[in-house]
Queue: 2 jobs
Job 1
Amino acid sequence: MSDTLHRWTVEQGGVRLDQHLSRALPELSRSSLQHLVESGCVRRNDEPALRKSLIVQTGDRIEVRVPPPPPSQVQPEPIPLEILFENEDVLVINKPAGLVVHPAAGHRTGTLVAAVLAHAPQIQTLGEVERPGIVHRLDKDTSGIILVAKNGDAQTFLQKAFERREVRKTYLALVDGAPPTPEGRIQAPVGRDPSHRQRMAIVPASRGRQAETVYHTLERLGEYTLLEVVPLTGRTHQIRVHLEFLGCPVVGDRVYGRRTPSLPVRRQLLHAARLELRLPNEGQPRLFTAPLPVDFQEALGRLRGAPLGNPAAQPDSDLPLNPVNPGRMNR
């Protein structure tokens, strides 16, 4: 497998090289880009650019050579997967809460990636070493739809679709309290919390990345609210941070909400319910849906006073998204 070469001319300069690269090549992590800079794989105006703090200027010619990734060191594991859809290009999976997407500190085994490798071994050489085929992610304790690429062309296609905001993800969130208005749009930059490096936070624009989230109230349930949430950008923990910012954190979120959950739940009640996108080699968008998991249904049923298992505990997941307002459903 040969190197991948990216070339372009800077349209708007005045920023650090590492910041410019992360915007130009969002499919690569910051650590990967830093390694490329340090190893001489990045050139500016035909000269090696060896400092990430270098300031790029309008009109600079940038060239980035990306070597092929080594085979994944993740070992396949026969973990059951709930596959919603599969073809030669993609897997659409309903991820349960508690399953980590890719290996990280403290979670080297038992991941979604290990399960996918057992199902589709050909993805082993795709993308970054420990996250082959992964084009977006869900937090460990967030349930719902996640998309996995099965070949290099599909991965590139999907990464660019996410970059161009052509993928619409819709979440259901049960929150403590209620937002200040029944529906709205949150525009607040998200970045690393300077006081707690394991958390994200709302930060000044100079220290974070633009983040935008649309929400709509589906149901008031006493001291709780069921929201439909559409993230228009894809920042780490974006929905959880933005809802905390509104004063209505996700129920069960011990990081951005109450340390002792207000309901007897073991995780944050956030579910990726819908995913709408155009797949590689297809002309029309598809809409995938994932039903609410049992713990989320039970929490809603408890608040509604319905017997467990009552269909009233399951919101209608077959309603199409309104194309005019991405935060509303057609009723």
Note: The longest strand covers residues 212-221.
Job 2
Amino acid sequence: MRLILLILGALLLGAAAPPPPAILIFSHTTGYRHASIEPAIAAISAAARAKGYAVTASENPALFDDKAMLERFDAIVLLNTTTRPKENASGEWLTGVRRDALQAFVRGGGGIVGVHGAADSHYNWDWYGRMIGARFARHPSGTPKGALTRADLDHPAIRDLPAAFDAVDEWYWFDDLDPRLRPLLLLDPASIGEKGANPRPLAWAHAFEGGRVFYTALGHAPEAWSDPRIIGHVMGGLDWTLGRGARAMVVIDEADKQRDEPTPHGKIGMSTAWRITDGVPGRMMEYRKRSLHPGSAIGVHPIDHDEVYAVVSGEGEVVSDGKTSRLRPGMTAYLYTGAQVGIRQTGTAPLVLIISYPLEKVPQQ
């Protein structure tokens, strides 16, 4: 009887397991046909299957004829899907109900990965350009070696890339780049003989109308798809569009972070500090607790990012650019970039604060 129950339990657990994410690699073109498409299909398919994903590769636009067809997939990779020349709208295959199907897919939470020529596509559909995040404008001639830098962000598409590296590609310049995007990779134009001191964005990721969209301009050359850096970059972007790839959570015991020290910015008395997030890999924010002992204060100092002081217990006063406010439990002071800020303890009990602020760069661990 026990054996039967164990077998039934195993069957029930197996039945409850969710299906693997289903990926559509789509590479239909009506414009320039990249020689890298076939190597890219092979590389992305192999890497996705190694992660346990179910992969379908197709060039049949009829897949977009019905919303139900796209509902089978969790993410779509638009692989060099060029439709140029832009002046000839007859090459654009996302029209009519196909537009409705793609919009429903994205708005239903589907993921989109755009690779290289996916930005060189469907110039007569404004929504498509906003989804990708930019439009291809031009590229310098040839495929010179360019100097790339990784943004100071923690994102699975760049997490394993070097801080700076060289690559050979066809380098895209963009029009209609969404100014809200935070680039993940940047190209030094001088490294390929182009004018301009400002780095050029090459990859980004953004939430768009309920879905997630990742785009990279890399992937023009067939050789790119034997480069583990490029494959890992694209797969990290794919993971992100699927809601995967985040770092494992970190659970912190405050007792391990506690120490007594003079208060910062003037050493006006003593405090107990809990540097809670110190050492958390890839963090983009600071979260700390500090107890200001009676008579102590954090001296007035300029802040170069917004900060939040939330009162846990005790009472005190906070000053920002000469304006003073009383604080007590249940109150929070939101302080703005550029202000001259200080806080002091009042009364007999220590003033215990939670202090949080964003980091501009990922700390080096």
Note: The domain at 254-358 is CATH 2.60.120.10 (Jelly Rolls).
